[in-house]
Write a structure and sequence with these properties.
With 306 residues, this protein is of the alpha+beta class. It has seven helices and 17 strands. The strands form two sheets. Strands 8, 9, 10, 11, 12, 13, 14, 15 and 16 form a nine-stranded mixed beta sheet that branches. Strands 1, 2, 3, 4, 5, 6, 7 and 17 form an eight-stranded antiparallel beta sheet that branches. The structure holds ligand PPE.
C-alpha cells in the first residue's frame, strides 16, 4: 500500500523531516531482518487524537527486543512520549504508528550484538487494511506456508525478519484472488492471518487459538476478549482446525492495522450467513466506540496526544 507522507519522523529522540529519515545501505537490519517493531493506531476522540493501548504496545516492543537481546537506549516512558509527540507534531487526528527498533550501521555478519540499536517512530494515515473489511468481510485462504514455529523464530516476538514468512503467505493468498491468508502451525492448527489474530463464533461462543499455538499476543485480540467477556460472551482459547473454520457461524480477524475485520469465507466455504455476523458486528462496534473514547469503562486504554 502506498504510504501517505506527513511532516516528521522521530529518529533516536529527534523529530526529523520525513524526507531526511534515512539509513545507510549497510544497516544491519536491512540485511538480516534484525529489528523489532510495533503497529499502533491513534483514533480521533472528542478530546483530540488518542493512542490506543500505547503502553501495552511499548511493553510488547521491549519484550520483543529482549528476545533478540537488543538493548533499547530509551525507557518505555520515553518511547510512549515519542509516539504522542510524533502524532502531535504531524497534526493528525487519526493515524497508524510504526515504532521500530533496529540494528543499525557499523557491523556486518550474523552476530548482531555489536551493531548499534536505533529507534524510529513514524506515523501516517492508514485506512482500510483488508479491502472492504468492516461490513462485508474478507475472503481468506489457508496458506501452504506454515507460520514460523517457536523453535524457528519465536512467533510471540514481533521481529521484522519473520515477516518475510507472512509476506509469502500474503502474496500466495492475494495472487489466488483472496484477501488474506490464514497460517497453520507445524501441527496443522490455526495460528494467525499474515498480520492478524483469528476468531470464530460457534453457537454464540467465541473461539480463538491459544498463544501457545504460535500466535502473536495481539493487543486487539486482548481488547476483543475483554469486550466479549464484558458483553457476557464466553471466550474459549483452544486449538482450531480447518474444520472449525469451515463450519463456524462467524469469523473475524483482529489486528491494529486490520482492526476488526469479518471473515466471509475460508477456502471458498462461506461462514454462516456469508457476511458480517451479529456477534462480529456487536464486538466491532464496541471496539470502535472504545477506541474513540466513547465508553467510560475502556477509557484507560487511551493515551491522549495533547
Ligand atoms: N498476528 C500477527 C502475525 C500480526 O502481525 C499482528 C499485527 C497481529 C497478529 C495482531 O496484533 P495487534 O496489532 O497487537 O492486535 N500486525 C501488524 C502489522 C501489519 C502490517 O501490515 O505491517 C499491525 O496490525 O500493525
Amino acid at each position: 500500500m502506498p504510504i501517505r507522507t506527513v511532516d516528521k519522523i522521530w529518529m533516536d529522540g529527534e523529530l526529523v523531516d520525513w524526507a531526511d529519515a534515512k539509513v545507510h545501505v549497510l544497516t544491519h537490519g536491512l540485511h538480516y531482518g534484525s529489528g523489532v517493531f510495533e503497529g499502533v493506531r491513534a483514533y480521533e476522540t472528542k478530546r483530540g487524537p488518542a493512542v490506543f493501548r500505547l503502553q501495552d504496545h511499548i511493553r510488547r516492543l521491549f519484550r520483543s527486543a529482549h528476545v533478540y537481546q537488543m538493548e533499547i537506549p530509551f525507557t518505555q516512558e520515553e518511547l510512549c512520549r515519542g509516539v504522542t509527540d510524533t502524532v502531535g507534531a504531524n497534526g493528525l487526528r487519526s493515524c497508524y504508528i510504526r515504532p521500530l527498533v533496529y540494528r543499525g550501521y557499523g557491523e556486518m555478519g550474523l552476530n548482531p550484538l555489536h551493531a548499534p540499536v536505533n529507534v524510529s517512530i513514524a506515523c501516517w494515515p492508514w485506512g482500510a487494511y483488508l479491502g472492504d473489511n468492516i461490513e462485508n468481510g474478507v475472503r481468506a485462504k489457508i496458506s501452504s506456508w506454515k507460520r514460523n514455529d517457536h523453535n524457528i523464530l519465536p512467533p510471540g516476538a514481533k521481529a521484522t525478519g519473520q515477516y518475510i514468512n507472512s509476506g509469502l503467505a500474503k502474496v500466495e493468498a492475494v495472487s489466488g484472488g483472496y484477501d488474506e491468508a490464514i497460517m497453520l502451525n507445524m501441527a496443522g492448527y490455526v495460528t494467525d492471518g499474515s498480520g492478524e489474530n483469528v476468531f470464530i463464533v460457534k453457537d454464540g461462543v467465541l473461539f480463538t487459538p491459544p498463544i501457545s499455538a504460535g500466535c502473536l499476543d495481539g493487543i486487539t485480540r486482548d481488547s476483543i476478549i475483554a469486550i466479549a467477556h464484558d458483553a457476557g460472551y464466553q471466550v474459549v482459547e483452544r486449538n482450531l482446525s480447518r474444520f472449525d473454520l469451515y463450519t463456524a457461524d462467524e469469523g473475524f480477524f483482529t489486528g491494529t492495522a486490520a482492526e476488526v475485520a469479518p471473515i466471509r469465507e475460508v477456502d471458498d466455504r462461506a461462514l454462516g450467513m456469508n457476511g458480517r455476523g451479529p456477534v462480529t458486528k456487536e464486538l466491532q462496534e464496541t471496539f470502535f466506540a472504545a477506541a474513540r473514547g466513547e465508553i467510560e469503562q475502556y477509557r484507560s486504554w487511551l493515551a491522549y496526544v495533547d
